[in-house]
Design goal:
- This protein is an all-alpha fold.
- The chain is 69% helix and 0% strand.
- It has a domain at 26-94.
- Helix 2 (28-43) runs antiparallel to helix 4, helix 2 runs parallel beside helix 5 (73-123) and helix 4 (51-69) runs antiparallel to helix 5.
- The longest helix is centred in the middle third of the chain and has 51 residues, at 73-123.
- The protein is flat and about 80 Å long.
Amino acid sequence: MRRVTMLPTSAAVCALLGGCATQGPQPTEQLARARTVIEQADKAQAQRYAAADLQRARDELSAAELANNKGDFGVARRYAESAAADADVAAARASAGEALQAANEVKQSNRALQQESERAAASGAPPPRSDLQSYPPASPGPAAPPPPEASPPEPQPRPQ
């Protein structure tokens, strides 16, 4: 009778171990990368320009950690990789947003300079001096040495 109960128990243990073996190793590298990329996206102002992508990355990282704690390494790995990808997208959108803002500031500055130039031209006033015009001219300095004459090299005797 004891053998009959032991057979199903050992079969269940083998099935559990076999199920875990297909999961692969614990996804520590993927989890660490996801955390790092999310931190980098935070530093890149992703919350300002790509809040939805960053939040999705954080949610996926939480799901990955939960699955990892439950021992479901395959699911944890997929969530961690997805979290890293979403954080990369958030960081890229943040960089694009920063670049767009800088470009708009340059355009605005150029418009202001153009308006100043037009006002000065309309009033007949001379244009303002640039910073370079306020410096004295450069001194000529010492003359450069003349170039060497282009004569063929003298043949050297061959050692015997």
